[in-house]
Amino acid sequence: MTTEERRAEVLRRLQAATQPLTGTRLSRELGVSRQIIVGDVSILRAEGQKIFATPRGYIMPEDEPSQQKVTLVCQHSAEDMEAELNAIVDNGGAVLDVIVEHPVYGPLKSDLLLESRRDIKNFLTKMKKCQANPLLVVTGGVHIHTVRVPDEEALTAIRQELQALGILVNIA
User: Fold this and answer.
1) Greater pLDDT, 62 or 165
2) Ranges for the Helix-turn-helix type domain (predicted)?
3) 84 assigned binding-site residue
4) According to the model, what pLDDT value does residue 136 have?
């Protein structure tokens, strides 16, 4: 299989997938190293493909026209991260990403695609295992989430719970 054929196969598998695919799984199935897959995905992204790297693997999310995406500005300590994420998913939202404004590098974004408490648990377990600091440590806890919600009712519930937790930043 040529490099171009392998990249086309990676793209085909991602387009057909209903769940995230890990680089390890793709590398095993295609008979190359995981690093080759990482490079292939980077090149596909550079070519304009919407491929997201999440804690569960690579995915090409489908656009859901009946749902809306909103940004929420939050501020809290690393200890409150689980409560924040649970408040969003428990009220019907999905946390698509996190963005912080680094003083030197500018905006830093990480795709999350957290849709359930199980996703959150896996994400936090991976953070702990890797001894990784959340991006919010760069900005004193201030960060932005892009959140997908099914309707205004869910968005209102999310905002109310985050406000009750003292996490939502009111922008006047």
Assistant:
1) 165
2) 6-59
3) yes
4) 85
Is 76 among the annotated ligand-binding positions? yes
CA pair distance 131, 46, nearest whole angstrom:
30
The β-bridge partners of 68 are 149
Q: What gap in Å lies between CA 8 and CA 45, rounded to an integer?
A: 13
CA 86 vs CA 1, 48, 142, 147, 157: distances in Å: 44, 32, 18, 12, 12
Is 152 annotated as belonging to a binding site? Answer: no
Element (H, E) at 97: strand 94-102
**102 annotated as belonging to a binding site for a ligand:** no
Cα-trace Rg, the chain:
17
| Residues 113-167: tens digit of each pLDDT | 899 999 999 999 999 999 988 888 888 899 999 999 999 999 999 999 999 999 9
Round to whole Å and give the CA distance between 117 and 87.
Answer: 10
- Record the pTM: 0.70
Total H helices, total E strands in the chain = 6, 6
